[in-house]
Design a protein that fits this description.
By secondary structure, the chain is of the alpha/beta class. The chain has helices at 41-50, 54-74, 90-98, 136-146, 183-191; strands at residues 12-16, 21-24, 31-33, 80-84, 102-106, 121-127, 147-156, 179-180, 195-201, 204-209. It has a six-stranded mixed β-sheet with strand order 5-4-6-7-10-9, sandwiched between helices. A four-stranded antiparallel β-sheet has the order 1-2-3-8, with no helix packed on it. The termini are far apart. It is globular, with a radius of gyration of 17 Å. The protein has one domain (12-214): 3-Layer(aba) Sandwich (Rossmann fold). Strand 2 (21-24) and strand 3 form a beta hairpin.
Length: 220
């Protein structure tokens, strides 16, 4: 029996392609690759380096800046954020800091600074990161612990919208992509954690941390 790496319930075999087997969880609706097919750290690092090219930097900036604008409109004063899983270029980082905000960064291969885990943040950005989580439950607990109450979690990942199309979905062909989420997965997380789901569509998920007693699911 294979357990779901997000909710720990029993998962079922879903599909086999030329390289990997995939499983699905009927509880949290996560689809994930067989752990035996995970890439070794050296191979992961090589692929990760190709993902940090200039074109990806532009996309990362376009992801973070609107988020800052939205949060600033609702929360006055300087913001302290965490760019989790990627590293923003120095010029873009300078612009954010010149606007009065602070953005800390963590990248498991490029910028490893354990001190970032010793504080909490007004917002956390995860751009093209969650699909790489081999232990999503562990990573979710970490992200929750790093976010202040009322803080924002912005996620960019390709949402799985139709299981029947999974076999032809190009997103699952990247061997470093091992966890695949649908809106139902984020519904599950909101129902079982200190988060409310604000938005989930296409490649953007926006959640807000709140007290467990005050969770209200708001789907836009």
């Amino acid at each position: 029996m294979i357990k779901c790496p997000l909710c720990s319930n029993a998962a079922e075999f879903f599909i086999q392609d030329k390289k990997r087997a995939f499983y699905t969880c009927s509880d949290c609706h996560l689809v994930f690759a067989n752990p035996q097919s995970y890439l070794m750290p050296a191979a992961l690092k090589q692929r990760y380096g190709r993902a940090n090219k200039a074109s990806k930097q532009k996309q990362l900036v376009q992801f973070i800046q609107p988020l800052l604008t939205q949060i600033s409109a609702q929360q006055h004063g300087p913001l302290t954020g965490l760019n989790f899983g990627r590293v923003l270029d120095s010029n873009s980082l300078d612009k954010i800091e010149h606007a009065g905000h602070s953005l800390y960064q963590y990248d498991p291969f490029i910028k490893i600074d354990q001190h970032i885990f010793n504080r909490q943040y007004d917002f956390i950005c995860c751009y093209r990161v969650l699909e790489h989580f081999q232990q999503p439950a562990k990573e979710w607990v970490l992200l929750s612990s790093l976010l202040k109450e009322g803080g924002w979690l912005a996620i960019s990942t390709s949402l799985l919208t139709d299981l029947s199309l999974f076999s032809k979905w190009h997103f699952k062909n990247n061997p470093s992509h091992v966890s695949f989420y649908s809106q139902q997965t984020f519904d599950y997380l909101a129902q079982n954690s200190e988060f409310k789901l604000l938005f989930a569509a296409k490649e953007l998920v926006l959640m807000q941390k709140t007290s467990k007693s005050d969770i209200k699911r708001i789907l836009i």
